[in-house]
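4.2 Preliminary Data

To establish feasibility before requesting continued support, the project team ran the inverse folding procedure on a target of 365 residues. The structure was first converted into the token representation described in Section 3, and no sequence information of any kind was made available to the design step. The complete token record follows.
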């Protein structure tokens, strides 16, 4: 069997998830890692995710087919000069950072362009650390590749195939375009979420009415405010130019909204919400995105003891695994409805068909 050595620097949420996916799909590969947290490395060895834990970037990294840089972005860039000696001609050096220009610039400086293909799995969560990592995190998620100008097409093809084998969806982009696009769809939303949460904290009443009354909508758009502070600090520092421009443009949009409110401009206010509804509704639920897609359906349940158990039994006896199940209450479903999440689209479709056959009212989303 063909074995390869894969190295990781940083084995947290993303590094850990990729390592676990490699372990799952290429069990014969040899995995090694360096992380500043000794506990993380010990756990990864104990769980059988990696074979070798390294106390620094050392000789172990020589001969790797892939080296994944998965620490916060400023550290990834800083480690390149230490890594350089261990990067052989066949090695594909890659990262998973949310910003690409800074690492590409350092790669050019160090003459590592023939080896470097930037990477960015558009998957993750507000959680962090190896303990939260899982192979399914990158499954069906877009995985952006930003090849250096001098890397061979053969290496790009090999990396693309590797990403596909890990069940992610490779997309090749220019690194500068990557930073503008992710600046808008990922970095700006994180800044909005965090500043909105802080705004509520700073303007709340003495008895914290806002904190206690905050409803689903507020929680939906601020989930990501619980993300790793060091990671987002570094993203803002490294994608400064794009984020500054995007914030300026977005503040202009907010000012227009304020003007419409100040002037009681009925038409403008209606359009604001109608346009956003149309565009948001046109985003396919099944497309992969920064927020990992979910395969869920909603189902009315008969209000009697054992209602959930009956549905779970129907699904289990048809070999459909449930990822998550629970009753939700919101304005859309005032009476409460059962939300059932599945691991993939086909399971969700099969479950919907089956439950309809049993005369359940099913809402597919
Ligand atoms: N969290 C997310 O949703 C996503 C994160 N990313 C990128 O992935 C990278 C890692 O993020 P996460 O895995 O979420 O973070 P994390 O905090 O879960 O993991 C980072 C890991 O790096 C280690 N580390 C920190 N500083 C280090 C250093 N100086 N030397 C060696 N190891 C060090 C930590 O001990 C930890 O195990 C970042 O560059 C981020 O931009 C990319 C896509 C999604
Ligand atoms: O939690 C979420 O929805 C995210 O937005 C996760 C995420 C964070 C950083 C990235 O570079 C990509 C994805």
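Position-by-position output of the design step:
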């Amino acid at each position: 069997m063909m074995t390869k050595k894969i190295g990781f620097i940083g084995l947290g949420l993303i590094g850990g998830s990729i390592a676990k996916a490699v372990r799952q799909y290429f069990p014969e590969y040899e995995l090694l890692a360096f992380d500043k947290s000794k506990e993380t490395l010990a756990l990864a060895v104990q769980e059988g995710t990696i074979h070798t834990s390294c106390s620094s970037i050392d000789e172990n990294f020589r001969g790797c087919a892939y080296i994944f840089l998965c620490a916060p972005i400023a550290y990834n860039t800083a480690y390149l000069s230490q890594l350089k000696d261990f990067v052989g001609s066949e090695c594909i050096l890659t990262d998973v950072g949310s910003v690409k220009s800074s690492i590409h610039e350092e790669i050019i400086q160090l003459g590592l362009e023939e080896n470097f293909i930037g990477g960015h799995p558009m998957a993750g969560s507000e959680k962090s650390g190896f303990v939260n990592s899982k192979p399914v995190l990158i499954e069906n998620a877009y995985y952006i590749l930003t090849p250096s100008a001098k890397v061979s097409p053969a290496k790009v093809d090999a990396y693309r195939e590797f990403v596909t084998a890990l069940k992610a969806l490779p997309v090749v982009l220019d690194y500068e375009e990557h930073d503008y696009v992710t600046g808008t769809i990922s970095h700006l939303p994180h800044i909005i979420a965090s500043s909105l949460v802080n705004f509520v904290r700073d303007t709340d009443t003495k008895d914290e009415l806002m904190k206690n009354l905050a409803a689903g909508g507020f929680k939906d758009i601020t989930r990501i405010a619980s993300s790793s502070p060091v990671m987002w600090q570094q993203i803002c520092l490294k994608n400064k130019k794009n984020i500054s421009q995007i914030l300026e443009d977005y503040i202009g949009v907010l000012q227009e909204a304020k003007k419409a409110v100040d002037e009681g401009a009925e038409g403008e206010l209606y359009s604001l919400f109608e346009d956003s509804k149309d565009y948001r509704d046109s985003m396919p639920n099944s497309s992969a995105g920064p927020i990992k897609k979910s395969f869920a359906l909603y189902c009315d349940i008969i209000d009697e003891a054992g209602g959930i158990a009956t549905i779970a039994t129907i699904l289990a006896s048809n070999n459909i695994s449930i990822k998550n199940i629970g009753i939700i209450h919101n304005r859309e479903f005032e009476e409460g409805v059962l939300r059932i999440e599945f691991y993939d689209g086909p399971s969700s479709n099969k479950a919907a068909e089956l439950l309809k056959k049993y005369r359940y009212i099913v809402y597919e989303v």
